[in-house]
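Backbone-to-sequence.
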């Protein structure tokens, strides 16, 4: 159970992870690299196209939110709205992926709402684009500390269910079973 990915911005760090407390998976990763070129009009002696370089890199992936796994689906969906337009560091598997990215889109799909109006399930798709913004040192430091926290045993606790399994059994009850 570890952090799959993190996105660290001035707002803080968002985490995709599967733990005993919460399931926020990371799947369907896609990225693209595309050439940026202009076509020339038919002018003798000039190339047919001017190559400008690579277009900005895009990244997208999905996360499934499920209320059965202790995720407040609606709150998580609404919270992501404030992150749109934020530039930050995307880390996948504890390593920085690509340049700085800006979150450009969050799309909710397959959302299921129960009869009481509670959001039970949704698939969020995140779209990032390479950013020209330089990040402050505080964002870089926050990303490094988030990565260290994800790989450290500090703060790791045993779940209540696991603790109950480890408790000693009452011998009077065991003899009746």
């Amino acid at each position: 159970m570890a952090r799959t990915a993190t996105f660290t911005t001035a707002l803080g760090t968002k985490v995709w992870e599967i733990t005993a407390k919460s399931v926020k998976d990371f799947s369907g990763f896609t990225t693209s690299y595309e050439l940026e070129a202009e076509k020339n009009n038919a002018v003798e002696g000039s190339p047919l196209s001017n190559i400008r370089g690579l277009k900005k890199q895009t990244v997208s992936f999905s996360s499934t939110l499920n209320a059965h796994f202790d995720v407040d689906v609606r709150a998580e969906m609404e919270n992501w709205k404030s992150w749109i337009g934020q530039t930050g560091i995307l880390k996948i598997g504890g390593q920085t992926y690509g340049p700085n990215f800006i979150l450009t889109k969050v799309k909710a799909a397959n959302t299921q709402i129960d009869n009481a109006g509670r959001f039970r399930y949704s698939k969020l798709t995140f779209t990032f684009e390479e950013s020209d913004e330089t990040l402050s040192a505080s964002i870089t430091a926050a990303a490094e500390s988030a990565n260290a926290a994800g790989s450290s045993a500090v703060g790791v606790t045993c779940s209540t269910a696991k603790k109950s399994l480890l408790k000693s059994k009452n011998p009077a009850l065991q003899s009746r079973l």
